[in-house]
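Re: folding output
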Amino acid sequence: MKRIQFNNIVALLAILFLAVSCERDTSQLPLASNYPTTPDVFLDGFSAGLDYAAWGKVTNFNLDYDVKHSGTAAMRLDVPNFGDPFGNAAGGVFHAASGRNLSGYNVLTFWAKASQVDTLSNLGFGSSAIKGVVDETYKVTINNLVLTTTWTKYYIPIPNASKLTHEKGMFWYYVVPTSGGKGFSFWIDELKFEHLGTLAHPTVAALNAGKDQILDNIETGEYTLPTLSATFNLPTGVNQSVNFPSTYLTLSSSNPTVAKSINPGTYTVLKAGSTLITAKLSDLIVKGAMLVNSIGEPVLPTISAPIPSANAASVISLFSDKYTNATIDSYEPFWTWSGGGFTTNFAFYTQNTDKYLRYFNFNDTYNQRKVLVAISFEGTPIDISTMTHFHIDVWVPATSPNLTNKPELKLEDWGGNYGGTSSTGVYVSSTALPTNQWVSLDIPLISFTGLTSKAHLVHLVFDNFPTVIYVDNIYFHK
């Protein structure tokens, strides 16, 4: 395939200097849409239209009328001891079902203190769980926020407020005990969105460590960029970093007939050809341009996967037309953390009435390795104690990048009630996978080094596979 070479892609990182001025009254901001611009989340009580949903130990939240920063009340949140039978973590989400226009603000602020010096694992805004529907399109996270026993004001900057014209997620937190597994309490007061002129000098992290990329053999489909981070100078003079999804970015394509951004944070490859994809966060140019060389439509398996022969009574299936499958939460959970995230795309395909899974755009931005994805069944852990083998059929197109990768499979067991002895078993292939044919892997469970518990399995993880794979008949058997 003929492709465009480029040697001079210059992606400049601009630093936006915000004028330093006094903090101003956020209640006077103009209405930019039909959604309310209400900045308050919690002052002496919850603002109108706000709901709360708990994670972890659901009794962790209370109102405190004795310990407060100002006014009449504060929120008190209790982190349980590790091993608590009702949950090892405290977490929750505050959301507004009608949504709010937050485009006039640039930061979420609050006052907080703790019963002891300790750390809040993760918190932020942009996450909602209304009527069982989770929306994290514009989720922002800060990690490992240290609290003291003194009331202190904290800031969570908004990466690009123009995106938040109808946001439902006002605040979320997830905290596990860190001081020897000992629980603690913390208080939050005066939780609200503000527009501060003293929030300054934002810088945004680069894509692919700032290196321009040439992406060959890219098939048609939608591709998501990884999680990024940005750093802001706070009114206190210190810098605060936040992690955010690519939905906050604005993507541009030099040849929109080949690929263009249709949905936030993604680019959709439409046909064969070449185009240059660049990104901006508001006015900041993100380093790391991508030259996409597309081959057009996906290369699909030419035949169906082999029909399994194992007796159904001796099988626990994760995905197969032959067997009844276990309850699966997701065949492609989108995992992120402070160092980056995964941008894998997933789809079901059918070949001669046989359904299989297609994973493409494998990308682990934390380790800068192309490729990690998981099948998750945390909601209904699986007991494979009596099983002896793990089976999977894999088909790799010859056009897939990273064909020399030696695949790794991981099985994760979290123990009883998520509080028992957890373990992860790792299997590493000694060879790369052949292409353009179904390969059946039937692996003894004893080959998953490190798997000591098997009664509460929650994840099957694919790591270091080629960038595009098709899989079928994923099951345990004896």
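--- second protein (sequence, then structure) ---
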Amino acid sequence: MDFPTSSKIKKVIICGAGEAGEMIAREINKHPRLGLEVVAFLDDDRGKTGREVAGIPVVGVTDEVTTAAERLGADEVLIAMPSAGGAVVRRIAERCIAAAVTYRILPGIFEIIHGDARLSQLREVEVEDLLKRDPIDLDLESIRESVTGKSILVTGAGGSIGSELCRQLTSFDPALLVLLGHGENSIFNVALELEQKFAAAKAVPVVGDIRDRAHMRAIFERYRPDIIYHAAAHKHITLMERNIEEAVKNNVTGTHVVAQEALRAGAGRFVLISTDKAVNPVSAMGAAKMVAELVVQCIRDRGPTEFVTVRFGNVLGSRGSVITLFKKQIAQGGPVTITHRDMTRYFMTVYEAVQLLIQAAAIGRNGEIMILDMGKPVRIVDLAYDLIRLSGYVPEKDISLEFIGIKPGERLSEDLFASYEDLKETPIDEIMMAIPPPIKAKADAVTPKIRQLEEAAAAMDRDLTAKLLGELVPSYNPEAAPTTELG
């Protein structure tokens, strides 16, 4: 971020008198042309009150930011607490609003790990910061054992989850990272970013379609991946309701092809990235993801490859996220459109989700479904209120809300596991394990049905595709699916 030279000195309070806050203060002190003066620190450790950090006094705790800002005539508050959870950030932001001072944040602790905290890293507070949880205590040894020195294939590498997977996997020093995606621009951008930020990473960009068996076979034969993270999927619920065949072709057939080729090549582990929409699904997208889970359950015992499913809810900031839509609507002056006042969803930041995904993939065993603890469900209307306030407006006064009703394929709330799944704890508090019912006895009956479904979708037979999807997934009602006709 660029701080222009100013003739007026802007008084700054830094929340966080730790290493990150001290780095920011020293940088400000070294560059008077920035027009900034740090007048005080606030820190939640009361033992620091009365001390000095970088020659600047610690005058209290962060809860006192409103009174401190008013007493010291502060113009801006810098939140330099990379490990703080969302509740802490929310509390500070609300007090800054009350004091009518601007505020910025230094994001995630990983930026301190990979280098010094810098003024250039400061940015506006985002809704992701408000929902961020406390740092996760990972079993790094199990992750290193599963990733370091391995050849890894990430499908959907250009997407939100896939690209973040690639970023985080590089820190565990894989021997090779194959970035597979259908969109050339997104794959190019991720490959370029990895080349610039992780020069030592051996990343190979590959443009291809997961449904293309010949190409997938060639990829497996050439790169011999030990681990496959299968992130490629169609995820947009209402769009897939009108494109059921494509939901099946990508989410079911694509998964089937990649899983079979992993098995054929003798890969060590196949990780299916699933969703809470696959639990008792009512949408075509969710039903297709449930069938994808069935696919890996049906073939899990046919060779040396271990098949692990990792299931979680919505990721903040992902493509097609409601956050993106809300921001656009706020920028246009509203209204912000919400389906229902009581609608809730599980949310997690993409960084947190991928952290736990890599951990779950490392500790999961063949046939297990690992479920990420998504915290408490969030009301969509509360999310909208947060975004409106962060944009400097008052909800229902400056920006109105409009409730438009539930769309096809949507429901008021989501579940992370089904009633028929046996839930167990794992060594990681934030990860649970669901044991699905034994499928061996019915795999012979399910597999031909899946094949028929894939053939119907390939033939673009919408009615038959919907009918077969409903037969495989009892909670899905094909009669409720909208037609693709115009008008």
